[in-house]
Design a protein that fits this description.
This protein is an alpha+beta fold. It is built from twelve helices and 43 strands. Strands 4-5-6-7-8-9-15-14-11 form a nine-stranded antiparallel beta sheet, with no helix packed on it. An eight-stranded parallel beta sheet has the order 25-24-23-22-19-18-17-26. The longest helix is centred in the middle third of the chain and has 16 residues. The mean pLDDT is 95.
């Protein structure tokens, strides 16, 4: 990285350009030495940057074509300006003080900032208080079941901040000050990322911390889970029931305790309940076209063979003489052994994906204030204090890198409970932990998910229906029949949560206390069952749209679950809307979080919109009251959108010759790139994929389908598109459209007049 270094009475200030829009700021106090290993930043992506340096009136000015950095020599405070010299952000005071925490010495650090009064701030990972805009709030940043600590801010002023520290940290914007702080560090260290568009900020953050690889196509289908399935017979029978009922499904999840009795955390199957895991996987793969995700933990019981194998290597376990221990994922050799155990016991049997639970890691219960992180964690590269928040990223790194070495035929898919920026480069996603099942928690998940995605990691999900149910207010359910859910209040909650889950990056149901399969909520013809199935069908019909946008995540650093500020950054009305968002660039999602609601108030940003369910057009820029019967969540599609609407299928990779609808929403010009590849390998990294570009000219009512770009093994040479002009009586809802222009596409340009 190119830049300058300034020596002061108290230390060295470094300002370096990662590229023309990303600036690294570091202040190393006099006497401090750098000992913290870099885990978030992908330094190889930094570029040689051309910048100018001038001095005037005690200010050093560094300029690139996109950004200007002013350093006040008297105070050593930094200001960031755009290319027209408009102020974006200014530092205030910085603090550092010698400290010692659990035998690790360093500095308490704090950097204050001066934010504009109208500025909104988002991100900070996943928190559970329902806060969307962090102005006027403060939060401790630590990993803990339902909380994911990600020291990232995205500003409505067109920039992002990445606070580069792994210890217990804090964000504060109150009368106490406006700052980031950390309890232990060698230096003050952060990155400024200029957009100014939110997509550009996230793209810059991914460039800085690593790009997200493609997940397998099936990962975007429905994932059925519960705590827990207890045998291979039960696993197979549940998937067979989905197939029998023709309810789409792609993955079933095997939660904990599949391991041999008394061998907690052992990464192999119990031979009594899972007597033939290879056969189970063969049936799932070949007969049922389904996949298995399995729960693995960093914690192992002392009676497990995995524990005892780890124990043979000094330092691989944090506590060798207790009943259980977490392995040291900061140690590359320990990571390799962990993978060898998972590979031998699970992956070679055919397991498809990893549910990495309790990756904070969970040490002696959930209470972080017991100081277990600092006391028990003994990373190979430092102290538990210094690396408190970083365990999950190195744990995921070990699984990803070793699976990639093992095979290129199966994409890595990790679901984990904690994160840091950079986790995305290891094929990892997160869920919102063991949350309660109630309406307030449902509403809070929307802000939690949006802020998580604005922290740079694109794939997120939640336990549809909540993890814990019994003991929740307003639900009166008996434990006598565990196979039937009788309480209508909970059914309403589950249906509304399911509708929201359908428009999360990952679509997954999970929880304890009650089963979560669709037929537990009724039978065909009952309101809850029908609403669940119709929502499921909608997800699968949108898979071409979802998978194409997943490619944008990988290729362009895009975001699938998008706070409204992404697409409407100049509309200040959206700055504090925490319960609406865009799913991809076209679909406005409006979850219903009221138990008795049959309508909901929502804001339509300043453009034209189509009601997805009716085809009605409405001009935006105002609040409306939208119909919200229990069977339908209000959805609106932006004018100028082109949405590929696939045929009804039972699993994501089902091969069908049925036509694909191309729904065109008049009112503005539009473009969509339909992406396809081989679904579950890494050949796309070698260019083995195709893109079909659709361009809509609204003035002339012409849709142009451009020649296909690229190709891959198994690509369709011919296909049929039904081109649909969406309107009040056509192209609405989940059913096939009545009126369309039929196009037989063979890879050459086609022009359609609508």
């Amino acid at each position: 990285m190119d830049g300058i270094e300034i020596s002061t009475d108290s230390g060295k200030l470094g300002v370096r350009f990662y590229n023309e829009k990303i600036i690294h700021v570091a202040f190393l106090p006099t006497g401090s030495t750098e000992s913290t290993h870099n885990l978030m930043i992908d330094e190889k992506n930094g570029n040689k940057v051309n910048f100018s340096k001038t001095s005037k009136n005690g200010i050093i000015m560094l300029k690139t074509s996109s950004i200007q950095v002013n350093i006040e020599l008297k105070s050593n405070r930094i200001s960031f300006l755009d290319s027209s010299s408009n102020l974006i952000l200014r530092e205030d005071q910085r603090y550092f003080e010698r400290t010692k925490v659990h035998n690790d010495s360093g500095y308490y650090i704090r950097q204050d900032f001066i934010w504009k009064s109208s500025e909104a701030l988002y991100g900070l990972g996943q928190q559970q208080g329902g806060i969307f805009n962090w102005r006027g709030h403060k939060v401790d940043l630590y990993q803990h079941n339902k909380h994911i600590a990600m020291p990232v801010l995205l500003s409505s002023e067109g920039y992002g901040l990445l606070w580069n520290n792994y210890s217990l940290s804090k964000f504060n914007d109150s009368e106490e000050g406006s700052y980031f702080s950390s309890e232990l560090a060698d230096k003050i260290d952060y990155f400024f990322i200029y957009g100014p568009k939110p997509d550009s900020i996230i793209s810059g953050l991914r460039l800085l911390t690593g790009q997200a690889p493609m997940l397998p196509r099936w990962a975007f289908g429905f994932i059925q889970s519960k705590e827990r399935y207890k045998s291979q017979e039960e696993i197979i029978n549940v998937v067979k029931e989905y197939r029998k009922r023709k309810i789409p499904l792609d993955c079933i999840v095997l939660d904990w305790q599949y391991w041999p009795e008394n061998q907690w955390g052992q990464k192999s199957f119990d031979s009594v309940r899972f007597p033939a895991p290879e056969l189970m996987m063969k049936i799932l793969h070949e007969e049922l076209n389904a996949h298995l995700m399995i729960s693995i933990w960093p914690k192992m019981g002392a009676m497990s063979s995995d524990f005892n194998e780890m124990k043979q290597h000094p330092g691989f376990l944090y506590t060798e003489n207790e009943k259980e221990s977490v392995y040291d994922a900061f140690n590359p050799e320990a990571r390799n052994l962990y993978w060898n155990q998972a590979n031998k016991g699970l992956f070679t049997k055919g397991v498809d994906a990893w549910w990495c639970d309790a990756t904070e890691p969970e040490l002696k219960g959930w209470d972080w204030q017991t100081d277990n992180f600092r006391r028990i964690m003994k990373p190979a590269n430092g102290s538990g204090t210094r690396y408190m928040n970083a365990y999950s990223i190195v744990h995921s790194k070990g699984i990803y890198e070793n699976q990639r070495k093992t095979t290129s035929c199966k994409r890595v898919f990790i679901l984990t409970r904690s994160a840091l920026p950079g986790l995305q480069k290891y094929g990892a996603s997160c869920w919102s932990g063991d949350i309660d099942g109630n309406w307030k928690v449902l509403k809070n998940q929307i802000a939690a998910g949006l802020n998580f995605c604005m922290s740079g990691i694109p794939y997120w999900t939640t336990d549809i229906g909540g993890f814990f149910i019994y003991g929740m207010k307003n639900f009166k359910m008996e434990r006598t029949d565990p196979l039937v859910i009788s309480d209508d209040n909970y059914k309403k909650l589950y249906v509304r949560w399911y509708q929201f889950g359908c428009f999360c990056p990952l679509f997954r149901s999970h929880g304890t206390d009650l089963p979560r399969e669709a037929w537990r909520f009724g039978e065909p013809g009952s309101w809850a069952y029908d609403a669940i199935v119709e929502t499921n069908v909608l997800r699968y019909r949108l898979l071409p749209y979802i998978y194409s946008n997943a490619w944008k995540v990988t290729s362009h650093g895009s975001t699938l679950m998008r706070a409204l500020i992404f697409d409407f950054p100049s509309d200040k009305e959206v700055f504090n809307i925490a319960d609406q968002y865009m799913f991809g660039p076209s679909i406005l999602v409006n979850p219903v979080t009221d138990s008795i609601a049959t309508t909901r108030k929502l804001y339509l940003p300043k453009t034209g919109w189509y009601n997805f369910w009716t085809g009605d057009f409405i001009q935006g820029g105002d609040w409306i009251i939208a119909d919200a019967p229990i069977s339908k969540m209000p959805l609106y599609v932006k004018a100028g959108s082109i949405i590929p609407f696939g045929p009804a299928i039972q699993y994501a990779t089902e091969n069908t010759d049925k036509p694909m609808e191309i729904r065109v929403y008049f009112g503005d010009d539009g473009i969509f790139e339909l992406y396809e590849d081989e679904n579950d390998n890494y050949n796309y990294e070698k260019g083995q994929f195709s893109i079909i570009t659709f361009i809509w000219n609204d003035k002339n009512n012409i849709l142009t389908i451009k020649p296909i770009q690229g190709g891959f093994s198994g690509m369709k040479e011919q296909r049929t598109f039904h081109i649909v002009r969406v309107g009040k009586n056509n192209g609405k809802g989940i059913m096939d459209s009545k009126l369309s222009e039929i196009v037989h596409y063979e890879g050459k340009e086609v022009v359609v007049k609508l």
